[in-house]
Design brief:
Blueprint: E1 2-3, E2 11-12, H1 17-36, H2 45-54, E3 57-63, E4 72-78, E5 84-89, H3 90-93, H4 99-116, E6 138-142, H5 154-167, H6 170-184, H7 195-208, H8 212-221
Parallel strand pairs: 3-5
Antiparallel strand pairs: 1-2, 4-5, 4-6
Length: 235
Amino acid sequence: MVPDKTGRFAERPHYSAQELDRECERIVSALLRGRRGSVDFPVRTDDLEVLIEQHESELDAYADLSDFGDDVEGMTEFFPEGRTKVSISEKLANDPRRENRLRTTLAHEFGHVYFHRHLWAEKFIARHLFDRKSIENKAICKRDSIISASQYDWMEWQAGYVSGAILMPATQLRRLVSDYCEPRGLHGSIHQASEDGCALIRAVMDRFAVSEDAARVRLLKLSLLVSSSSQPSLF
């Protein structure tokens, strides 16, 4: 635990990227073996819905989140005794063209459920926490922060990292990159905008059924691609 500079809690958990990757790979592997008998990708929408519900969280996949802003696509509410409720914007659920975005949001909200719900154990003294309009017991997740939030907003950063780690586990992703690079004699850094970088992003999109943004961000966070700017330190 480290001090929470956002003021939301006195202390908050610090997870290394390696810790998040290991735990997420364990979770998704167990889920897929239990449901399919093998670890096959991509992770489906119904897999993610079951994952959330397996962790004692209520799921509303067709929620009206307009009260919290037009750009809010997911929300996790925290209640006493570790109970949680995940709400997904009806705008995602009702648009088949946004299936990948829906899966990314479900995996993001699972990150809040699994890694953050214990933090609210001492936060339910004031009754106003249960007011629907209060944001004190809610992780409200906007479109632009689902995949990659700023490091200052550690809850959204961690949930965004978890989303990528659930949908694109590190072991399988590194294997895909190795299978691409070895026959081509590629070594060292590959720039995201290069021909090979773009090809790798497309390969990840196809293998794991994720958006271009999600694939690129995940490859960058694992340092499997590089950008022209300096990479953010792992949080």
